[in-house]
Amino acid sequence: MIKHHLERDGLLIAPVTEGDLLQIWLWYSDVERYKHATGLDKPITFEKMRDKYMEARCSRWEFFFKVVEKQHGIMLGVVKGRVHYLLKDEAWISSILIDEAYQGAGVGHAVVSMLEEYFRSVWLIRWLYTGVLTSNIAGLEFWRSMGFMEVRKTRYQIVLNDRPEDIVIMAKNLECGSSLRCACADL
Q1: What confidence tens digit (pLDDT) does each residue in 106-151 have?
Q2: 13: which DSSP letter?
Q3: Quick count: other Cβ atoms within 10 Å of Cβ 144?
Q4: Burial state string for 4-23 with b = 16 or more CB within 10 A and e = fewer than 16
Q5: Of 2, 15, 92, 186, which one is least surrounded by beta carbons within 10 A?
Q6: What share of the chain is helix, strand, coil (3-state, %, to 5)?
């Protein structure tokens, strides 16, 4: 698991530890609130949550970070993903979950901005990707506001509430910052 610590503006992004899993499991179990962030429409067991953690922990290409408000030590959310091990200039954010109480306060924007800078400067990542369910209108708007653009749509990649859902693949060229024109030119 990628083990760097990032700090900026009172936020700490650090690797998840086993002691964090109970809170993360509670978020993942609250499927009505967080199904778009987790991709789950049914609660998972704590053992399954621990398995997800162990998978990330055993891979040198994956990250499973907690987001902490540094002054009070409150965990505000998690972000999960991986650096592409073959195409080393790509990274994927597979999930970002910010506690509902802190949504709309700029935490998600700060986290993605910190990760962009980290991947650009430490890993020399050129492209950052994410996938968003087409039904997740707020998620699509969030990623667009961060300078990500839609690059393709995959059909019926996930089933939520017994309905197949399409996923919009979104990308941002980190060499160009938030310039969509630059990102479009290389795709």
Answers
A1: 999 999 999 999 999 999 999 999 999 999 999 999 999 999 999 9
A2: E
A3: 14
A4: eebeeeebbbbbbeeebbeb
A5: 186
A6: 35, 35, 30
